[in-house]
Amino acid sequence: MLLATPVVLLLCLMSGSTGFGIPDLGGETGQSIFLLRVYRVLTALLVGAALSCAGTVLQALLRNPLAEPYVIGVSSGAGLGAAMAIVSGIAAMNSATLPACAFLCAIITLAIVYILANSAGRLSIYGLVLSGVIVSSICSSLLMSIVALSPTEEIQSIMWWMLGNLEISSLPLFGVSAVLITAGIAGIWIMAPELNALSLGRDMAHHVGVHTKISISIGLGLATMITAAAVSISGLIGFVGLVVPHVVRTVAGPDHRSLIPLTALVGGLFLASCDAVARTAISSELPVGVVTSIIGGPFFIAILRGRRKKGWIE
Amino acid sequence: MRTTTHLTIVLFLAATLASGCSRKNRQLPQGERIVSLAPNMTEIVCAIGAGDMLVGRTTSCNYPVEITRRVPAVGDFGAPSLESVLAAKPTLILEVDFQNPVISRKFDEFRLKRLVMPCKTLDDIAIAIRSVGIVLHREPEAERLADFLTDEIREFRKAAPKKNRPKVFVEISNNPLITAGRKSFISELVNLAGGENLGDRIARPYFEVSSEWVVSHNPDIILCLEKSSPGSSRKLAMTRPGWQIIAAVKGNRVYDNLNIDVISRPGPRVLSGIEELRQCIAGKKKTE
Asked: How far is Cα B213 from Cα A279, in angstroms, rounded to an integer?
């Protein structure tokens, strides 16, 4: 795995819409193109790592194999924020306003879900999943009503945003997201022993001395923060956060101390490779969210079929 | 039983509407009650002096300004409201080629007369003007306008330089980056105005590109055609990561102050659109 990393990264840097190979670094244009590819690969690594780690955490905390970064409403919250920014014209003012709106709405959505699930004084796991689904549906309906009522050009922007794109529009924004994501993943890694205990069940975790409510809240907060940061720079990219954690778990085992860094690495590399395909497959651009499922789906089905005995799958 | 009742009501409604329309026809043997479902068609109708026949337009039909006060909107361009169209009691519906076919079929069910004009190229405009002129009995006016346009376009074609044309990147949208390709109306205008449209390298009307694609083709001029607050698209293009080495950014040739309605509509105002693009490409227009 560690040996494959530099090879995959090199291949990603060599592929771009202007042809395969390292661009001529002597010229100004070549340097600029190379720099753009570096940004894109870095963005893919960050976003992929963030989504897969968030998926791992949520699968552990919610003890649900279908949990993914978007399950508690982060995606529809962020989508709603982005659509409102596009329709109200805020997005056209500055390249940082759309991601900021998306981030803010994602955090607000999580806060609402958390308050709903926490209403009786005890944070309930089922409550989290259920209120997540309900708040998600409400946000999606609001989003769809915005789409239905807005003029054609804006629908296009909203739709493309929802399919995901790893091209960054401003460097400072990328910097902020990178810091948030790195800090979030580091925090999750520190929590690995608690995650191990919590994935055995809440009572079990309590018996081995874990403050379950605090740990669940912190884990949820970190997962949402990195998901929202990822979504705000790249839009909604599906599949990565759901499947990468399962695959890594079947191959590397369920110990979160090694699972977290490995998922981050695999998720990042997987998204970077998918983006390389998205940039080069046809003469213009394919949305990367489409490629993740089309390319990744069959690949991961093959892995899961070969390794049925471990992980969630019996 | 219930189905039959419904059917009867529908038939009754259809009959009432049909008779309403035909009665109007008898009262106004010369005039039509026109609903125009495209801004360029609205402009054509007004340009041949038949503006007072308009009884419906789309929300995008904003020229001539007078019609926005007088003629009610029956929905958005590309998404008209069937009910509003019917309420305007039209005798003729004007459409362009990318009208939603489902709604067009509905118009057929209500036996509404439709004129569908493809408006994909410059030459289509004169054809559309002549056809509308014939249907509205305004042949002389339509003929004069169509001839004038055809002559002027021929002049532009003659005057357009063949060599050393500056490379132009047309930015239809900046998030995602979308440009106009070889089969687009805008590409035809840019080439006629003396530029070389970068998107022509791909045989599709509109498509998404990456920053890398734009940098590697190094355009001399960037035209931002998305609707946004003044100066914001220009600022975004000038500060986009990696774009500082593009000739257009270095040479301060990024324009976002073009009259988008005129440039994007295949209608009678197209000549002033070409002229504006020519000013841009020749470097005679200010960027701010």
From this structure: 10
- Cα A231 to chain centroid, rounded: 6
The residue with tokens 């018996």 is A207
Residue of B nearest to A160 (CA): B176
User: Which residues in chain B have Cβ-Cβ distances shorter than 8 Å to A33?
Assistant: 212, 215-216, 242
Residues of A in contact with B229 (CB under 8 A): 89, 92-93
3-state secondary structure of B261: helix
DSSP A230-299: HHHHH----SHHHHHHHHHHHHH-S-HHHHHHHHHHHHHHHHHHHHHHHHHSSSSPPPHHHHHHHHHHHH
Closest C-alpha among A268, A261, A262, A270 to residue A299:
A270
The verdict on whether omega for the bond into residue B64 sits within 30 degrees of 0, i.e. cis, is yes
Q: Coil, strand, or helix at residue A54?
A: helix
SS3 for B36? strand
Smallest Cβ distance to B210: which of A17, A89, A94? A17
Q: ipTM, 2 decimals?
A: 0.71
Query: Could you list the pLDDT tens digit for every one of the 288 residues in chain B?
Result: 444 445 444 444 444 444 444 434 434 446 789 999 999 999 999 999 999 999 999 999 998 999 999 999 998 888 888 889 999 999 999 999 766 788 888 888 888 899 999 888 999 999 999 999 999 999 999 999 999 999 999 999 998 888 889 999 999 988 788 899 998 899 999 999 999 999 999 888 888 888 889 998 999 999 999 887 778 889 889 988 889 999 999 999 999 999 999 999 999 999 999 999 999 999 988 887
By the 10 Å C-beta count (0-12 exposed, 13-18 middle, 19+ buried), A282 is classed as exposed
pTM higher than 0.80, yes or no? no
Is B179 strand, coil or helix? strand
Chains A, B: CB contacts within 8 A come to 99
Interchain CB distance below 8 Å, A153 and B212: no
